[in-house]
Amino acid sequence: MPNEVQASFLLWLTAVAAGVLETIIRIIDTLLLGSASGSGGETDVTGVISGVVIRVIVYTLVVYIITRMRLGKRWARLTLAVLLGGIGTLSLVIDPISWLAEGNSLSEVFTEADLLFFLIAPIRTVHLAAVIAALALMFLPAANTYFRTSRSVRRQALG
């Protein structure tokens, strides 16, 4: 396995870890704000639980796909590129882009920022950087050769 694929694998895992950390912080924030404001209750807890269940399923599937990519599975590389590299990246940047499109300026970011922003922003930055780097590494020449060779070896073993 080329170093590029191993590095991509580790960066994809870093992106998942960042997503998990952001989820934990948001859960804590939701539960604390819900209980502090008195508006919480069972509805917020139910929403948090269902959100956690969905995220656990998604993160588990993503880790499975990442491990398949590491083994040279072309379908896994394509899935990571489209779902996480494309759609996942869009989900990370849509909120800031929408906020700017509403007429807000970059100078307002820090004047309107709260503690949650200062906790989430660096995590999102690491998450986004890991996704972009992992995506790029998966398509470098050595990685391309690895994925082609892995497929050829499987074909020869089968036939």
Distance between the termini: 23 Å
Number of domains: 1
Number of helices: 6
Structural class: mainly alpha
Count the strands?
0
Would you tell me the overall average pLDDT? 86
Envelope shape: globular
Rg over CA atoms, rounded to whole Å, is 19 Å
Would you list the SSEs in sequence order as H and E?
HHHHHH
Note the main sheet.
Answer: none
Strand content: under 5%
> Any low-confidence stretches, pLDDT <50, length ≥5?
none
Approximate helicity band: over 70%
How does this model look, in words?
By secondary structure, the chain is mostly helical. It has one domain (3-152). The chain has six helices and no strands. Helix 1 (3-37) runs antiparallel to helix 5 and helix 2 crosses helix 3 (74-101). The longest helix is centred in the N-terminal third of the chain and has 35 residues, at 3-37. The protein is globular and about 55 Å long.
Topology:
Elements lengths: L2 H35 L4 H29 L3 H28 L4 H7 L2 H24 L2 H18 L1
Short description:
It is built from six helices and no strands. It has helices at about 5-35, 40-70, 75-100, 105-110, 115-140, 140-159.
